Amino acid sequence: MRRLTKKKALTLVKELDAFPKVPESYVESTASGGTVSLIAFTLMAVLAFLEFFVYRNTWMKYEYEVDKDFSSKLRINVDITVAMKCQYIGADVLDLAETMVASDGLKYEPVNFELPPDQRLWHMTLLHIQERLKVEHSLQDVLFKTAVKGAPPGKTPRDSSSSPNACRIYGHLYVNKVAGNFHITVGKSIPHPRGHAHLAALVSHDSYNFSHRIDHLSFGEAVPGLISPLDGTEKISADYNHMFQYFITIVPTKLNTYKVSAETHQYSVTERERVINHAAGSHGVSGIFMKYDISSLMVKVTEQHMPLWKFLVRLCGIIGGIFSTTGMIHGLVGFLVDVACCRFKMGAYRRLDAPLNPQGEAQNGIPAENFIQ
């Protein structure tokens, strides 16, 4: 009984075979079939190779949500060179709540405003990258992928052998997560009951020169490899009494790639500058003012790539599709060739069967000896 049951089961399985085998005696190999097979296998290999590169490639996915973190501090990373001596200028932050933030994290270093040739070359390269980023926004995805975790590389020391004519202000400071104003102006800042003030009266107007170069300005965690919109900005002032303003909108960003996971910030900026001339009605204070505001939306940037199962499905689709399509095309071409040959042979036989006239020619005017006997 068990053997009978097994035989019935095997018989049932054989009847369900969707791929019946054809005996080799009924299979005929042709040169055209071999040529089509060679083309099909080559095409399969090329497309499978390209599909593997698609599988290896990654892309950035952007998601948006409301930023619910208002209690944490915002870090500002600064590296700015101003064409004035360090004892004549001061930098600090005043937020929207009129709270003056201590600038203890900033350092002042006397330097020369002109860059050495190697640093000038890097500065020009950075400006070129900034121009391309404005046109090709997809380059930002490349920067996200190349970002790495860790401390940013140290700055190359500048040549200060001659008398320094500028001041490099660099470092970081932590501010409240509200709108504020980071500024560099004449005189050191001092506390004031209504905010703060700068001791500008002791500095001569002839020494004013707010020409500056922003080597780096970013918000949040410093991530090496990312380029901020103001990096490389250089402004030359033709007038000693000049105001430079940068209106910055900060967007909190969570970056998750295969190399780094960080909470940083992107920002957009609008620039404005004008000469201070009280007689002409242009009032204000000479200096560099960066007024920033924080967006309530947060961007989540995640690096993704094709899952393995999807790659295998696409690969099977490529191989099976090419195999089936080339088989159908080969069969259709063979059928058309057979039909054409058959019609040609039928035409030849009709000419052989045509009646002859008394001159020994067929009625169509062709001599009978020209036909195949």
Task: Determine the number of helices (DSSP H or I, runs of at least 4 residues).
Answer: 5
Proportion of beta-strand residues: 25-35%
Major β-sheet profile: 13 strands, mixed
Q: Report the strand count.
A: 15
Which blocks of ≥5 consecutive residues have pLDDT under 50? Answer: none
Instruction: Output the structural class.
Output: alpha+beta
| Integer count of domains | 2
Q: What gross morphology would you assign? A: elongated
Integer-rounded radius of gyration: 40 Å
List the helices and strands in order. Answer: HHEEEEEHHEEEEEEEEEEH
Distance between the termini: 69 Å
Mean pLDDT: 80
Q: What percentage of residues falls in helices of 4 or more residues?
A: 25-40%
Family: Belongs to the ERGIC family.
Domain Endoplasmic reticulum vesicle transporter C-terminal: 163-329
Protein name: Endoplasmic reticulum-Golgi intermediate compartment protein
Pfam family, one: ERGIC_N
